[in-house]
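Hey, can you fold this?
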Amino acid sequence: MKTPRFITVITGLCLVLSGTSHAAESLNKIKVAHWGHEKILIYAPLYIAMDGGFFEKEGLDIELVYSGNDDQVFATVLSGAASFGIGDPAFTAISREKGGEGKVVAALVGRVANWAVAKDPAIQPFTDPKKLNGLRVTSFPSPSTTFTILSGLKRDLNLSKMVIKQLAFGTEQAALERGEADLAIMLEPQASVAESQGFRVVWSLAEYYGDFALTGVTAIDSFIKNERDTVQRFVNALQNALTFIGKSPEAAAGMLGKSFPTLSAAIVQSATKRMVEDKTIPRTAVINKKAWLKTLNIRKTMGDLKSMEIADACLDSSFAEKAVFDPKPLHHDSPTAEPPTAAPPTAAPPTAEPDFPDSSLGWSTLGFWADVSSLVGLLSAAFSLAIVAKTLLEHRKGHVAWNKLSEFEQNCGRIIANCFANSVDRVEKDKILRALTDNHRIEQSAANDVLAKYLKIGLIEEIGKTGTCKPLVTPFAKLVPLFQLFR
C-alpha cells in the first residue's frame, strides 16, 4: 500500500526536528567565568568563536558567567561554578603559590588592551609614559591588571605627581566630562565611542608594553586532567576565531555586531581595526613565554606574587600549540599510486670466457687492469662509506639538537623544513620568517626567537652574512628530507 504524500512529508519533518534537537542536546554545555558584568570588545575572539559557530563545530555550548574583577573570575573557576575563566591569567600563579590549583591554557588578549583618552586639547599624543606625571589618571579598581600596571609605572618611573583614580568600569568618560580626571584609561569599544564624541586617544599601552599576557583562558588542574578533550576543543575554537579575525578583520567586525547590537557598525569597525593594528588580538592562542613572565613580574613587583619560580608550573601551552600546528605530515598531497613491484631478478646468462692469445703478455696485462679496477672500487667504496659516516654523524647531531627543543619549537621546525623542500639547499631568512608567521601562525617576535634558536643549536646555519640559510643535512644526506628523521 502506497503511503500518502502528506504522511511522508510530516514524517520527514519529524525526523529533521528530532535530529536537530538531538544535535543540540549532544553539545557539551560549558560555563565560562567572564570578567566584569557585560561583554567587552577586547574579548572579541571569544564572541567570534560563539557567534561564528566555532564552539558549536567543536561540540560545545558556551554560557557566560559574569563574575566581576579579575580575582573574582578565577575564584569562580576555583569554586567549580565555571569550567574556564576569562581574565588576568596571573591569578593562576597567585593561587598555585598559596597551595591551590590553576593553569592558563590559552591567550585571549595578547597585549595591554588599554588606551588613554583625553578631552583637554593641551594633552597631545605621546609615547613616553613619563608624560603621566602630574595628571589624574583613571583606573579600574585594584587588583585589576590596569591598576597594577599603572601603579607599577608610577613606582618605576618615579611619577610622584601622578594620581590614580580607581573608578567603576564604564564611568571613565563621565569623569573626563566632569573635569575629575585628565586621562581616562579605556578598553574597547569605550575608546572608540569616546573618540566618536570628540575625545582623543593620546596613548596606547599596547604599543608601549608590547607582548603581554593580559587575558588568558584559565582552568584548574583537575579539570584539565579529567577533561583534556574538552579543553582541546575549547582552545581549538578560540584558535579558529583568532585565525578568522586575522584574515578577515572587517568580516569579524560585522559578526561582532551580534554581541554589541547597541553599537554602530562604524564604532565596531573602528575598535576592531585598533585592536588588530595594536595586536591586542593575538595571532594565536599560544602564550608567548616572554609575555607570560612580563605579566607575572608586574604582579611580583606589586607584592601579589612572592617569586617567579611558579611560572612554568601554571602555564600549559600544549593545547594551544596543538590547535595552531597541523599535526599531519609535511606534505598533504593526494596519495600516490603504490610503486610497481619489481620483477624477481632473473639469472644472468653465462658469460663466455675471454678468448685471449696464449701468451703471458696478454694475461699479465689483464691482471694489471684488474688490479687497477679493484683499487678504484676500493677507493669508491671508502668514499661512499665516508659519506655514509658523515651523514650518520650529522643525523646524530640533528637528533641531539632536536631533542633540546620544546614541542612548540619542534612544531615550528616542521614549517621550516617545508622551506627546504624540493631539494632546495639555501633559503633566505626572510622567507623562513614569513613561513612561520603566514596564516597568523605565530607572532613576528616569536618567529625571530625560533629562528635564532635553530641557528644557535646548528640545525640550520647562515651562509656568511648573506641572510641566506642552509640546513644541517648536506646534499649527500638528502636520502631523508630535513627533520623527517626527527619526527
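Oh, and this one too while you're at it.
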Amino acid sequence: MFLGIEHTAIASPDPQKLAQWYVDHLEFVINYTYQGNYFVKARNGTMLEIIPSVGERGSNQPKDPGIRHLAIIPEDFDAAYAHLQAKGVRFLGEPFVIEGNRLVFFADGDGNICHLIHRETPLP
C-alpha cells in the first residue's frame, strides 16, 4: 500500500539559495519549483522540498526532537569529503568510524545537519 517517502521538506529563509547549495555542493538538480518552493533531486531519486520559512530558527542540536540529519551516500567517501572541503563546507568534526561505517557530519547552507556515510555492509 505505501511505497515510501517521496520527499522531505526543509524550511529555509531563502529557499532558492539553499536549493542552489544542494546543486553546487551535492550534485542535486532542481527538478521542480512553484510559488517559492524548490524541489531538489539526487541521482538516486531522493528529493528534498525547500519551502519558505516563517519565524526564527529554534535550537539545532544533534539530539533535539524531530528530524535531525540527512545522510548522504557518496560513491567515494574520500573524494566526496575532499570535494566538500574544497567548497568550504563547515564540518562538525573529523571523519570517524563506528561499527565499520565511515561518517563525517557537516552543515548545509542554512546550518541543517547532514553527513556523508559509507556503510561497510549495507542495511538490509
